[in-house]
Design brief:
It is a single chain. With about 500 residues, the protein is an alpha/beta fold. A six-stranded mixed beta sheet has the order 3-4-2-1-5-6. A six-stranded mixed beta sheet has the order 11-12-10-9-13-14, with helices on both faces. Strands 17-19-18-20-21-22 form a six-stranded mixed beta sheet, sandwiched between helices. Helix 7 packs across helix 13 and helix 8 runs parallel beside helix 10. The longest helix has 20 residues. It is globular.
């Protein structure tokens, strides 16, 4: 693709909606194409930034059109020709959703690349490595006006070198950094060895440094073990007798046993701050309740995978109470064959292709919509719990797209930088429709709770479309604690 930049002083991406524009911006970054502005046919986003590129209103775009070339990704290009003079029609819309970082490291989704942008607004960025990945990352960050302070390497003799017009220091020079806080982005292929070096220097994971793949949640699968029924599962070496669980409490006979299952928002391994399950345990303990909480959530699990784990692993624990905190992953999973998750499909299809074994089957195609599939699995878990004298609570989790009222500037920026696997799906709108459906059922099922509006009065808790910071986790834990008091006191 060649864009004749001589046609305009400014290069502007225009689209009918944010998804069109974000997909196109990702494609331009992968092609090292300079972009000055983005413009969406919805002025609600004007003034915000998409991957650090300013979003301007349609009126502002018209004002500069004489000096601009517009990359148009929308379907109605003829209408655009009636508005803008210089247009480049981008024909490959929707084919790219990830930022390529070369041949060594897998590409990163645009919405996760945005987390690097967020870090750059707080920290000075340092790249650990001087290889192909480091160079490409640096060049693409420069393209969106983000600049690395310096590079670091293991070799102490490289401190006088230059890489990408930046100084290269020894990793041990980090000991003498006394100025503004830094975030080290580790691009080294031998990530475990280099991560250990940073930890030995006193840096904390996800606070002072991240491995580049930590910006893409697939990284956390490396901390999970393969599992033939679930695809992958969390592992806590402190409690090897409970594979798939993080345990909060003493696990004593006589404790009230609570199992909490779900996806990444119930995964105890994802963030450096306490999970809401850990905070809940502390609250219950402070109130005098003798409990042990078994956190069973894992990144990426749709409710169908949770159901399999429930039948296989949770029932044998014989808990007193099971809480399922979920919903978001069922917005994006395969609704035709939801009992085999993405990881499992990749595994079996690759195995089939490489070994020439028989084709893979995923069973009968499901006909229910996404919400009813989620509710059906909740009803199955509730029914089974009733048969085994286990209390059951189902919670539809919060989602930024379901929030009622005004979005804060930060929340608008998160929405602007959120993308679905399918360019035709608006994740936020679909989440709102999903949450609206639960209102018709909470009066029928006493065990079903709607948390989708839990953060309506807060503008500073969301990290992305569904994950929240420590403040958000405290709010969740407090609300769940309120639900449990009558149960534990009865």
């Amino acid at each position: 693709m060649e864009i004749q930049e001589g046609k305009g002083k400014y290069i502007v991406i225009y689209g009918e909606n944010r998804i069109e524009v974000l997909f196109t911006l990702i494609a331009m970054i992968n092609r090292y194409q300079r972009i000055d502005y983005v413009c969406i046919n919805d002025d609600i986003y004007a003034g915000q930034k998409m991957l650090n590129i300013k979003c301007i209103s349609l009126g502002e775009a018209i004002e500069i059109q004489q000096d601009s070339l517009f990359i148009v990704s929308c379907n109605d290009n003829n209408r655009m020709k009636g508005i803008f003079h210089n247009i480049y029609e981008y024909a490959d819309f929707g084919k790219e959703e990830k930022i390529s970082l070369g041949s060594v490291i897998p590409a990163i989704k645009g919405e996760y690349f945005y987390h690097i942008v967020s870090d750059a607004s707080i920290y000075r960025l340092v790249i650990y490595g001087t290889d192909e990945t480091a160079r490409i990352l640096n060049d693409k960050l420069n393209l969106i006006h983000i600049f690395v302070d310096f590079f670091i390497e293991n070799n102490e003799e490289r401190h006088s070198d230059s890489f990408c017009s930046r100084r290269v220091y020894s990793v041990y020079d980090l000991l003498y950094e006394q100025s503004d806080p830094i975030m080290v982005i580790n691009t080294k292929k031998e990530f475990e060895k280099s991560t250990n070096v940073l930890k030995e220097l006193g840096l904390k994971e996800c606070i002072n440094f991240r491995y580049i793949q930590q910006y893409e949640y697939n990284y956390y699968r490396w901390y999970h073990w393969l599992d033939p029924q679930l695809g992958y599962n969390i592992v806590n070496k402190k409690y090897e007798k409970y594979p798939g669980f993080y345990v909060y409490g003493d696990d004593k006979a006589g404790d009230y046993k609570i199992v909490i299952t779900g996806g990444s928002t119930s995964d105890a391994t994802l963030y450096p701050f306490p999970s809401w399950m850990e905070i809940l345990y502390d609250l219950l303990k402070q109130n005098g309740y003798q409990v042990t909480i078994y956190a069973a959530g894992a990144w990426g699990y749709p409710v169908q995978t949770e159901l399999i784990k429930f039948l296989r692993d949770i029932l044998p624990l014989k808990p007193d109470l099971t809480i399922d905190y979920s919903g978001v992953n069922n917005l994006v999973n395969d609704d035709n064959y939801p009992y085999c998750n993405v990881y499992q499909k990749q595994f079996y299809e690759n195995a089939s292709a490489r070994s020439n074994i028989r084709p893979v089957t995923y069973g009968i195609c499901q006909k229910e919509d996404r919400f009813m599939q989620w509710l059906t699995c909740e009803r199955i878990m509730k029914t089974v719990c009733g048969e085994f004298d286990i209390r059951f609570i189902s919670i539809l989790q919060p989602l930024l797209g379901a929030k009622e009222g005004k979005y804060s500037p930060k929340e608008k920026e998160i929405i602007l930088n959120t993308i679905s696997n399918n360019p035709q799906i608006d994740y936020m709108k679909q989440g709102k429709a999903f949450s609206d459906r639960v209102k018709d059922w909470i009066y029928k099922y006493y065990w079903l709770y709607d948390f989708t509006h839990l953060f309506d009065d807060y503008g500073d808790v969301y990290i992305d479309k569904c994950h929240v910071n420590e403040k958000g986790n405290k709010i969740i834990a407090q609300r769940v604690c309120e639900l449990l008091r009558p149960v534990l006191s009865g």
